[in-house]
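[step 3/7] inverse_fold.run input=structure_tokens len=104
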């Protein structure tokens, strides 16, 4: 069976993800490490993992200064520095819905 070389990055990414924790779990742990409460982080991770691309999730992972966040506002300020409107929109809407209890 021949594999299309253009699909190889997708296969590699899938293989890497299969061997580790789910993106949602990793995202939740990262949000907790950034200073968000575990219930809020779990709710946000559930919403964000299904809405962000793998590339966007990887960019969020590379926010070392987010670990210094104390409030949601400070965390979102650091997310804004990524200059990705999609990440900011999904992260901020998830934070708002989860913090107010409107997200399920």
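[step 3/7] decode complete -> sequence:
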């Amino acid at each position: 069976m021949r594999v299309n070389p253009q699909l190889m990055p997708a296969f590699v990414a899938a293989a890497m993800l299969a061997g580790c924790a789910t993106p949602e779990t990793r995202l939740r742990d990262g949000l907790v490490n950034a200073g968000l409460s575990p219930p809020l982080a779990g709710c946000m991770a559930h919403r964000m993992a299904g809405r962000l691309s793998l590339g966007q999730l990887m960019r969020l992972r590379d926010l070392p200064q987010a670990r210094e966040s104390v409030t949601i506002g400070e965390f979102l300020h650091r997310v804004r520095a990524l200059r990705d409107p999609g990440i900011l929109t999904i992260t901020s809407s998830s934070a708002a819905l989860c913090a107010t209890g409107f997200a399920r």
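[step 4/7] annotate
DSSP finds six helices and no strands in the chain.
Residues 23-100 form one domain.
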